[in-house]
Write a structure and sequence with these properties.
It is built from 5 helices and 4 strands. By secondary structure, it is of the alpha+beta class. Strands 2-3-1-4 form a 4-stranded antiparallel β-sheet, sandwiched between helices. The mean pLDDT is about 95.
Length: about 150
């Protein structure tokens, strides 16, 4: 028997960071994401964001790589959003994503960060938040590709 607890904070944006996730209906999207993750035998700790991006705190099963998980969730939500009249302006997701691992002790901190997105973005633009998120987690940004959709 193998034992894992693979917890990731994943962030990705809408195509060209257009504000197409309608706030009045975002809970519908979040419920869909929760169901999608449950079907993969993952565990959603928190999902949230803004009209132009999402944050997902999730534990995924070890047989699914992070890149495969992001590919699948983007594909599935893209199809769902395009069929849903509440999100008629949705054009797709941006090309990239950021994902970093955390320990179970850090879950409450990351959850609160995701819950506070609306307040947080009164003071900081997504591009700056995303840049900080990446660099604070020890990854280097290649400016040739940073937020280039």
């Amino acid at each position: 028997m193998s034992y894992t607890n693979l917890i990731y904070h994943i962030v990705f944006s809408t195509y060209r960071r257009k504000p197409t996730i309608v706030e009045e209906h975002e809970r519908e999207l979040y419920a869909y994401i929760n169901g999608f993750i449950n079907n993969l035998d993952g565990k959603l700790y928190r999902v949230g964001g803004m009209p132009d991006h999402l944050h997902i705190l999730v534990s995924i099963p070890p047989q699914i790589s992070v890149s495969e998980f992001v590919r699948r969730i983007k594909f599935s939500t893209n199809s769902w959003l395009r069929r849903n009249q509440s999100f008629r302006n949705f054009e797709g997701w941006g090309q990239g994503y950021a994902a970093f691992s955390y320990s179970k002790e850090e879950i409450p901190i990351i959850r609160q960060y995701i819950i506070g997105q609306k307040e947080h973005h009164k003071n900081i633009a997504f591009e700056n938040e995303y840049r900080d998120f990446i660099t604070k987690n020890g990854a280097e940004i290649d400016e040739r590709y940073f937020l280039k959709d």
